[in-house]
Specification:
Elements (H helix, E strand, L loop, with lengths): L1 H7 L5 E6 L4 H17 L4 E6 L4 H6 L7 E6 L2 E7 L4 H10 L2
Parallel strand pairs: 1-2
Antiparallel strand pairs: 1-3, 3-4
Helix pairs in contact: 2-4
Length: 98
């Protein structure tokens, strides 16, 4: 938990992907997140949190479905959405907080 809090305190946007191994749409998000990272590079940190292994964290951030993406900037949640989000949408959302 403290490591997570440390990560989301960064000045640059931090995109957190709450996922589960058994979740089909979560598997679809993986290559999309890789493409987003390829486009944005060091402008964003992307971390993945397995909700089955990190239930207290998922509960704290009110993750009720997977995948849930939450964007943080300087420790504050600035955007949250459940479900698959397309690359161009994610890139423009992250850029708006860069």
């Amino acid at each position: 938990m403290s490591k997570f809090l440390e990560i989301i305190q960064q000045d640059k946007p931090v995109l957190v992907d709450f996922f589960a191994e058994w979740c089909g749409p979560c598997k679809m998000m993986s290559p999309i997140l890789k493409e987003v990272k390829d486009v944005l590079g060091d402008k964003v940190s992307i971390i993945k949190i397995d909700v089955d292994k990190n239930q207290p964290l998922a509960a704290k951030y009110q993750v009720r479905g997977v995948p849930t993406l939450i964007l943080y900037k300087s420790g504050k949640q600035v955007w949250k959405q459940s479900g698959v989000v397309q690359k161009k949408d994610l890139v423009s959302i992250i850029n708006s907080f860069s």
